[in-house]
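Field: COMPLEX_INPUT
Field: COMPONENT_COUNT = two
Field: RESIDUE_TOTAL = 1241
Field: MODE = joint
Values follow.
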Amino acid sequence: MTTPGPDIPGSGSRAGSAVPHESARGHVTGEALFTDDLLGRFPGLVHAWPVLAAHAHARLTRLDTTAALAQPYVVAVLTGSDVPGEGDAGPARHDEPLFPIEVMFHRQPVAWVLAESLEAARLGAARVVVEYEPLPAILTIEQAIEQRSYLAGPIGLTRGDVGVLGASSLRFDGQLSIGGQEHFYLETQSAVAWMDETGGVSLHSSTQHPSQTQEIVARVLGVARHQVTVECLRMGGAFGGKETQANTWAAIAALGAWKTRRPVRVRLTRQLDMALTGKRHPYLARYEAGFSLDGRLDALRLSLWSDGGWSLDLSEPIMWRSLFHCDNAYHLRAVDAVGHVCLTHKTSQTAFRGFGGPQAMLVIEEILSQGARRLGLRPEDVRERNFYREGDTTHYGQPVGDADRLGTIWTTLKQTSAFERRRADIDAFNARSLHVKRGLAMTPAKFGIAFTATFYNQGGALVLVYRDGSVQLNHGGTEMGQGLFTKIRQVAAGSLGVAADRIRMMPTRTDKVPNTSATAASASTDLNGAAVIDACRQISARLTTVAAGLLGCDASAVRIADDTASDGRRSLPFSEVCEAAYRQRVPLFAHGFYRTPDIHFDPAVGRGRPFHYFTYGAAVSEVEVDGFTGAYHLRQTDILQDVGDSISPVIDRGQIEGGFIQGVGWLTLEELLWDTQGRVATDTASTYKLPSWSEVPDVFEVNFLQRATQPGVVFGSKAIGEPPLMLAISVREAIRDAVTAFADAGGGHAPVVTFDSPATPERVFSAVRRVRLERPAFR
Amino acid sequence: MFQFVLNGQALRVERAAAGTTLLDFLRERGLTGAKEGCAEGECGACAVAMRAGEGPVSQYRAVNSCLMLLPMAADRELYTVEALAVGGQLAAAQQAMAAAGGSQCGYCTPGFVMSLFAEHYRPGRRGPCDPLALAGNLCRCTGYRPIADAARSLGPVPRDAFSARLLHAAPKVRELSIEGFSRPRSIDACVALLARHPHATLIAGGTDLCVESNLRHRRWPHLVSLEAIDQLREFADTPEFVRIGAALPLADLGARWHDAPEVIGEWLTLFGSPLIRNRATLGGNLVTASPVGDAAPLLLALDASVEIAGASNPGDPSRTTRRMLPLSSLFTGYRRTALLPGELVVAVRVPRPLPRLVRFYKVAKRRLDDISTVAAAMAMDAPGGRVQRARFAFGGVAATPVRLREAESVLDGQPWNMSTVERVQAILERTLTPLSDHRGSKEYRVEVSKSLVEKFWWESRP
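Field: COMPLEX_OUTPUT
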């Protein structure tokens, strides 16, 4: 890792101070290396290119590699017969054959050509002859439901008696179709594998889960895991897309290295990455909701279907998280929520920031918004009315800790964003503007922190102090831009009592900390940070004893801080204490470990305490919609987020802003489409649009909730990676508010505006057309 | 063999394999700061700076190195992110990005830094750096706010070796002839070359052709680059017309057309991205004949013509001829033009006087740097509320960009009011033939086209 130089301010600072990213200097100079930047270090490197299936679903009837092998500079063609172990990369079920006999999605790789250059590999791949017997393909959730094509489910959570629906004052049903999302990490999937000096296999892999990459490589090669070493320097973004889906490419690289005994590089081009890797799950939701006249949600019957694609991957825990989060911030007194994961002949959808939470939270916000409009109430009032209060439990029986923070955030944000004044301003604007309307909306987000599979909630660290007082820090988490290493270094500096620039963050390696969990679920600082503290405290305790001997005082009088051990009268440099410890044969290294306490969940009964704690936040967004085109513009967003005591304010603000904009992309312009043949139709950067500068709100205010210490978590902090994404629902709701304003306001309630997600200009245009034509709806 | 200057050092390149981009070359040399993010000029992670510009001084222009085939770098002076920190001291653009929290994963960062560096050193810049100069760079992590802050935090153009370099003219791009790649010096030489090599393909800025190469793996036996032909970069503003050299980068068009109507600025802002505009040309955009190209609708509405050069006599390619063709006659089918073999577009002529009312609308999922779902340009004079010289042109509604002659003739002499708009809308409803694709359904394309006519009326109503 690159050490920040003295010209970046604050790089020596500790927990709580606003420091830039630990690798910022490397980022801006280009010195920070990513997996595919390392190729020059591997003489004799071989490049790989896949042979892609021509059908979404088919049986392979012939695979002839002769012509490819005759192509100049082709080294080998990898097929199923080259696999010494088990040719399957499925992380949960073993349901992802690397060399399929039955093609399960369009462009699924069926063989890999290895060559001296990428160009030669590409030409070679074009010469592999493949024949198929096409089979019927399932390409939509609706088709899957009809054919009962499921990978998992039904799974569900229930509370109370949804039979009360029949007695509700307002009862309505509906459905919402929610589009998927491409991760579009700027660095595509990549791995380099080589046979190491001792006959083992080593890899550089852009993976969020090096231990699982190691597991899959070992499985494919048929060797014990100790033969495989995986290193992740850093990732150029991941967002969940490299939690399981880095494994396949690493396995192919390793298999190639095994076969050719040469270093092999697999890097997906953007188009391959978009065509082959899983995405955020598209969802279909059907619901029936009952409200009382004052806007209280009495009962909810909810069915969720996710489009899982061709293999299970993480789809089942993702659906669980949807079920856990179908309440968002609201007390569901009676709920019956059921989920299915559909098997379709598409890419295998996977983890993506929020992990099923966003889709379910979108649905409940849709329902509350519609309920409010039908009742003639303001959506923000209906939301507030349904908030969890102190003492409430969730529909799976977990007490909602610090539920009062919801109300605090809501009230504070309403004031700081001048919500009521702007509401009036917007009404006035809309009254005089015929073709351009503005909308305003406020939505909350509660998010549960922990892996819902309890055993994943463990973290490990290995801290090495050298005689000169310099430190190498290893832990189980990976850096993908989220600032984990920055925070961990701050935590370690605080725990050891040294300046951060004394600590060198080491790349994540499976031979330093074994059996790690994925860097995911927003929990990596909580887990790995706590493990680092554990290790640092052990070392610190030993050094304190040594220092006490040197200072001639009681150990309880010694304090190590600012690179100095002191008893209040005399002091010693940290390095001197380390040298003395070495000479006294006191170990200067320690491993640290952490397991999250008191979490459990029993899926059989749907009850437990799956989360360590909840984070809370809310956002107010204002948009302007052009009725002529359906185009919209985000004028302002105000966010108030509970981050506990921020370890690293620059990092946390960056996560909030970046997560929010990523959510805006998911809900507005990022439209993931498959064609009728089952090909990803939006498989390039020119056909799939990420938020750019035009999607940034004109005014963007982000604040942290004050006095929000979180007991039992690293330095009182809270997780931040995923929660802000869901705040983007405020933008969708603001668009709905603006579209509603296009209705002829003459008498009665405003119409109920509905549109599927994402709210592309086309959908907004249609919605505007509909409200202009429709008569106002009455309840 | 050819040469160029990279990070202050002269380099000799003996041969370039087909399809090798400047980005590939840089990374193979260990200059891995420039990254491949999309290989089609959308993300800017591969941006490098090129010293360019016409006249006695020059400027740094950020360009996508994935959209330059290696021989296109011949004679150029290029800088990668590795060159910016001198003696371990970060350049101001780097310092600002790091301090503002402008990098998270860091993968896109070198590209942003290069765009910001070029903006920081932009000659004549007054006030802080314009964040929109970075609009050709995509970031998936930050949400852009800190990057915008970094840009706004930068002060005036520094006085250092980098700015001193700009007091010199940009390096002269010379004739080049290597296997599979030629770069003639004049239109005549180009026409002669095309006559000798009937299978040769012209390449200007390469922002479309290189996408074909990178994504669809297309290879061409012989590319003829237009970048050494100074005549193709001329710009002339006369009382009769504005003449724009076909290979003038769009970035120069904005700078050279001093009294351009407001619509030109709006149009250029929506035309690709800054990184693309630094390389892309009007001629290139027109001859690709894409139905969703940005250039055609507005130029059609301005009643532009193209000036075409070709060989008068295949037996004597040394004598070139010129012909004028109304732009509306250039497009003959989906990605097909009326250019004859051996011909090239040398200039675009926009006749004066320009219409009094003219608007350009681009409907896309993303406002900046997207390909249009529908693009429309509408121009007219409406003295006393009566329509004259109406010219309506649309992209994304048929196999080619189209001019709506029928609507134009219906409009002529009519009062500019909503009932006239409705008559035009009826014609659109009947005549537009869009397809449904990932950018939009055909129904939306028709309806939004009709709606844009009303928007035009609404914004220009008497």
